[in-house]
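User: Sequence recovery, please. Input:
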């Protein structure tokens, strides 16, 4: 039998062991975790909608109308009117012809990639794409070619030398670095080489672009430029689930072929109605996005002045580069001792030698709470030297 105990101990010794925290109460900047009140800077609740009164009220009012469970898959008797109304709203919000509501972002990526590519096809994937994209590529059984992060010049000859059906997939905003993919250039190279472009805008949706319509909309790219758009609803939207949006014929194709859509119980329909309310808040949320951007800009200015190494990110994802796994853990633990929750991110989530603290901001954070973070980071500078190794 495989020695699982030994493997777990090896992970602990390498500083790679992961443990769950138990959170009580709603998700918000000040959360109770393992019985301790902490100020959180590690959530993906970018607009502070996970505990928003309007979405909570929408869910409460929806329950008597829809009941709780989805009861069945969409293709049996689980496709509720509430799901359909959300799909119509998502299509309109993203400027797409049609949309499908998936249970999670992970399932959306698995379903889309494995449906749109298969044996004999080639998928081109950015090296820093999310695990769900990587797993979707493997599940598709297509040939997978990874191109250097954000490097369209490297991708172009790879596409040129490949025949047959070609699919290019990228994150819109990269979840661990916080940078935005070169979407205009990717759209052009896909047109030039007859490749289908898929963009997973999980971390741009609600935050970037006019009225929070995402990284693709920020650049004015249409459905013709980016035929398949994936987005999640458990981040900036503050609810749960995911969606895929694009031409009606491709959405119909996914209904026929996407196994993670076909063979799973539909999400609670009341949640779909709550998400429609959340989209209204997002659409009217320019003030929230402006406040969020102010927090990001001030953090970057002050963190760099303290000597911390940041990634070139303009999004709520602001990684502090550390390098050493144990040092990243030590810095995270020191911040926790100061009443702050900032997660250490280590391999295999990020490449070896690139351990970091993933600081994330929410429109629900105040400038006073940012002051607390900056003071704690100032107090913890002694844990790092210039190379990010414990001194």
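Assistant: Recovered sequence (391 residues):
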């Amino acid at each position: 039998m495989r020695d699982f105990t030994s493997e777990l101990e090896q992970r602990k010794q390498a500083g790679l062991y992961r443990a769950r925290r138990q959170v009580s109460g709603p998700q918000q900047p000040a959360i109770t975790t393992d019985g301790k009140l902490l100020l959180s800077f590690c959530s993906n609740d970018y607009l502070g909608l996970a505990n928003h009164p309007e979405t909570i009220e929408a869910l409460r009012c929806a329950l008597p109308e829809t009941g709780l469970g989805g009861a069945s898959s969409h293709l049996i008797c689980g496709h509720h009117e509430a799901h359909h109304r959300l799909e119509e709203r998502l299509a309109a919000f993203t400027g797409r012809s049609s949309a499908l509501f998936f249970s999670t972002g992970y399932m959306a990526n698995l379903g889309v990639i494995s449906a749109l590519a298969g044996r004999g096809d080639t998928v081109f994937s950015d090296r820093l794409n999310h695990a769900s994209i990587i797993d979707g590529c493997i599940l598709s059984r297509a040939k997978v070619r990874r191109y250097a992060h954000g490097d369209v010049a490297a991708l172009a000859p790879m596409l040129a030398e490949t025949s047959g059906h070609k699919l290019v997939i990228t994150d819109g905003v990269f979840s661990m670095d916080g940078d935005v993919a070169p979407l205009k250039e990717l759209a052009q190279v896909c047109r030039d080489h007859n490749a289908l472009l898929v963009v997973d805008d999980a971390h741009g949706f609600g935050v970037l672009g006019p009225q929070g319509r995402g990284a693709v909309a920020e650049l004015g790219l249409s459905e013709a430029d980016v035929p398949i758009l994936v987005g999640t609803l458990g981040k900036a939207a503050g609810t749960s689930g995911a969606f895929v949006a694009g031409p009606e014929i491709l959405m119909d194709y996914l209904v026929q072929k996407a196994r993670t859509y076909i063979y799973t119980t539909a999400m609670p329909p009341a949640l779909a109605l709550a998400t429609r309310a959340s989209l209204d808040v997002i659409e009217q949320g320019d003030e929230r996005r402006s406040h969020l951007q102010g927090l990001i800009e001030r953090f970057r200015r002050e963190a760099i002045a303290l000597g911390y190494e940041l990634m070139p990110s303009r999004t709520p994802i602001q990684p502090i580069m550390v390098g050493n796994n144990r040092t990243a853990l030590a810095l995270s633990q020191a911040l926790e001792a100061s009443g702050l929750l900032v997660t250490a991110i280590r391999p295999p989530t990020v490449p070896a030698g690139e351990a970091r603290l993933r600081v994330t901001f929410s429109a629900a954070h105040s400038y006073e709470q940012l002051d607390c973070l900056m003071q704690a980071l100032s107090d913890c500078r002694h844990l790092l030297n210039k190379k990010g190794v414990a001194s």
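The chain has 15 helices and 14 strands.
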